[in-house]
Amino acid sequence: MQSIYKVAWSDEAHSGFAEILNYLENRFTEREVKKFVKAFDDQINRIISNPITFRTSKKSKTIRVALVAKLTSIYYTFNEESIYLVAIRDNRESPI
């Protein structure tokens, strides 16, 4: 039976996602922004379906990393009940 996880966002994850969306909205078309949001949602659903699928961070074995787009990653942790989005980051930044 598939587990159902609650998804919680850290303040850093919220601000990172907002910064990336703002960047995309100012430099790309609405179509590209929607494409990114769909890719993000799809990746969140993959994490919920099987959180151990993605690799661990090079700096912390308790944090996992899921690539959303070439330059964007989701950093998260999880337990039996929930998935905690630690950060949404541009991959050109220092990794977590």
CATH-defined topology: YaeB-like fold
* Count of helix runs: 2
Rounded average pLDDT: 92
* Structural class determined from secondary elements: alpha+beta
Global morphology: globular
Describe the main β-sheet briefly: 4 strands, mixed
CATH uppermost class? Alpha Beta
Distance between the termini: 32 Å
User: Could you state the order of secondary-structure elements as H and E?
Assistant: EHHEEE
Q: How big a fraction of the residues is strand?
A: 25-35%
How many beta-strand elements?
A: 4
Description:
- This protein is globular.
- The protein has a single domain (6-90), classed as RelE-like (YaeB-like fold, 2-Layer Sandwich).
- The protein has two helices and four strands; from the N terminus they run E-H-H-E-E-E.
- Strands 1-4-3-2 form a four-stranded mixed sheet.
- It has helices spanning 11-27, 30-49; strands at 6-9, 64-69, 72-78, 82-90.
- The longest helix has 20 residues, at 30-49.
- It is 39% helix and 27% strand.
- The chain has 96 residues and is α+β, with helices and mostly antiparallel strands.
In short:
The protein is α+β, with helices and mostly antiparallel strands and 96 residues long. The protein has 2 helices and 4 strands, in the order βααβββ. The protein has one domain (6-90): 2-Layer Sandwich (YaeB-like fold), CATH 3.30.2310.20.
What attributes does this structure have?
39% helix; YaeB-like fold; 4-stranded mixed β-sheet; 27% strand; globular; 96 residues; single chain; 2 helices; alpha+beta
